[in-house]
Amino acid sequence: MSDDGRMHVPGSDVAGGLDTATSSEPGEPAHPHFPRRVTSFRARRSTISDRQQGVWDRLWPVLGTQARDGQDPSGPIDTEAWFGRRAPVVLEIGCGTGTSTLAMAQAEPDLDVIAVEVYRRGLAQLLAAIDREHVDNIRLIRGDAVDVLTHMVAPDSLTGVRVFFPDPWPKARHHKRRLLQPDTMALIADRLRPGGVVHAATDHPGYAEHIAEVGDAEPRLRRVGPGDDLPLSVARPVTKYERKALAGTDVTELLWEKAR
Ligand SMILES: C[S@@+](CC[C@H](N)C(=O)[O-])C[C@H]1O[C@@H](n2cnc3c(N)ncnc32)[C@H](O)[C@@H]1O
């Protein structure tokens, strides 16, 4: 991933501590009774600065939590208790360094945003920005979004799910690692409330086609457009990555609504 957290090229781990978040990550030996599942991310090394560590120590216990797997019987998170209010909840999968997360949460203070990421340095950058900008409608979960959706989110509860620039895994032999597959889309559809929205964006034409097929095939979802009456904004900020790395590359935005 580049400095702004946008493009994680699978296999391009950076120096530092191993950035692992769940027991199912590649690189760890599979338990004989619980074979490792294929994940959409790869363990990588990252470090955070002393300043980021200071913010992390202060804020993570309040604003962050670790993803839970099936071994933990706690059940779905109580978002009203966590945010201290009752508001529509949007889950962002793979927030990177949280550039879009922060801007969209600031633009929609009446929504509560849960940012999920396996990459600790990205979460540390987002935490520092939350601290700096005094934003109070973002919470963070570290770990695999599939675990989060499966074990921490109640059915029919989310107003939106955002997936911006998911790793495209461009090689054919890696396509099985793409996050947005029929199973994940079905899980997302299950966790959305009726009228809730999935918003995906990608600059990879092949993955865009794949996501479109998968979303259109999910019976609980119907395609909508940015001009439709939606319960959340679909205006993404143009990030540094988009301005530089994607100059001249088309971004495909895909939107579905869960049947009302
Ligand atoms: C290409 S980056 C895009 C980051 C960000 N959405 C953006 O637009 O800048 C994809 C991110 O998704 C994260 N990711 C991939 N699979 C994930 C999963 N199953 N759960 C949580 N995060 C995941 C990666 O760690 C990476 O930071």
Automatic annotation (TrEMBL):
UniProt: substrate binding residues: K171, D203, T239, K240, Y241, E242
Molecular functions (GO terms): tRNA (guanine(46)-N7)-methyltransferase activity
Transmembrane parts of this sequence: none
Superkingdom of origin organism: Bacteria
EC number: 2.1.1.33
Pfam families in the cross-refs: Methyltransf_4
Residues that coordinate or bind S-adenosyl-L-methionine: E92, E117, D144, D167
Family annotation (Gene3D superfamilies): Vaccinia Virus protein VP39
PROSITE patterns: SAM_MT_TRMB (PS51625)
Pathway where it operates: tRNA modification; N(7)-methylguanine-tRNA biosynthesis
GO cellular component: tRNA methyltransferase complex
Region (Disordered): 1-43
Enzyme class: transferase
Catalytic activity: guanosine(46) in tRNA + S-adenosyl-L-methionine = N(7)-methylguanosine(46) in tRNA + S-adenosyl-L-homocysteine
Family membership noted in the UniProt record: Belongs to the class I-like SAM-binding methyltransferase superfamily. TrmB family.
HAMAP family the record matches: tRNA_methyltr_TrmB
Biological role stated in the UniProt entry: Catalyzes the formation of N(7)-methylguanine at position 46 (m7G46) in tRNA.
The name this protein goes by in its record: tRNA (guanine-N(7)-)-methyltransferase
Species this chain originates from: Mycolicibacterium chubuense (strain NBB4) (Mycobacterium chubuense)
